[in-house]
Amino acid sequence: MKKNTRERLMSEEKDSYRRSEMEFGVAAEAYRSDPTKKANRNGATLFSVVLALICVLVVIVAWYAVTESLDIVAVAAAVVVGIVVLSSVHVCMEWERAVVMRLGRFNRLAGPGVFFTIPLIEFCTLTVDQRTIATPFGAEEALTSDLVPLDVDAVLFWMIWDPEKACTEVEDCRFAVALTAQTALRDAIGRATVSNVVMRRHQLDQELQKAVEEKVTDWGIAVLSVEVRDIILPKELQSVMSLEAQAERRKNARITLMEAERDVSEILQEVSQTYEHDEIALALRKIHLVYEGMQDNEGTVVVPSAYSEGFTIDPNKAAPQAPGARG
Fold this sequence. Notes:
By secondary structure, the chain is of the alpha+beta class. The protein folds into three domains: 39-129, no CATH class; 133-233, Band 7 domain (Tetrahydropterin Synthase, Chain A, 2-Layer Sandwich); 239-316, no CATH class. It has helices at residues 2-24, 42-67, 72-88, 163-168, 173-190, 194-199, 201-216, 235-276, 279-297, 305-308, 315-318, and strands at residues 89-92, 96-102, 105-110, 113-116, 122-129, 133-143, 149-160, 221-232. Strand 6 (133-143) and strand 7 (149-160) form a beta hairpin. Helix 2 (42-67) packs antiparallel against helix 3 (72-88) and helix 5 packs across helix 7 (201-216).
């Protein structure tokens, strides 16, 4: 009993993890490149730290030069100066913008480069990355209009064009964008049949992009594109659709074959009319067919005597006598 319960719990955990992979793009993390090959802001952080340390050393050296001694007050003063420098000197990379608040109200956008804020009065609420962001999302067992469950995996490309709105209009813009895309995906799948979803993937991309863009534009976010990566059908439905596709291919093949036979019959009818009035041409054609058969098979052809008589031409029919002539 305990073993069955444990196995059931493990199965539920696996299903839950698989669902989270599909809905929030955890599986897509495996495709990310090496973090060491991506741009980072370690240099900007190091600049602020080194500048604060330099200010701390300057305060300590100045205190010692004036008082010729070091005590707890000098250390405390140096630490306070270092904290003030860290909180007032900031560096933004080329692709970043900082939202600066003054006493709780929006004041300005700062960056890129070095900028300063007033300690205790101004502070950076959010540093926004304005590069193109790729957000994977999906929907597991989303029902189509004909009640077929589908697993769909997609990716959203977007960027923040207004950092002020992204900071003041929505709490967590990244999470909100992912949930909006997932909701739009489920809604689009629910309005279409399974054949429309599978066969009109490009149309689904455009519909998703329009739906997501209408929602996130007020948040200062622009949707660049939405691309469906994978559509997984139930195994039972895959077999049925495979049989349906095979039947359709057989139908098309038979129609093509019958059309070819119709064209061949029309050509043969024209040829028969030609040979009907010219027995010499018909005999030559028979000889040519035998020659082609020998050439293709690279062997010897035994011609029955009855068949070989067809190669001979009756002299009376080939060269009819003139009226009044005697044999």
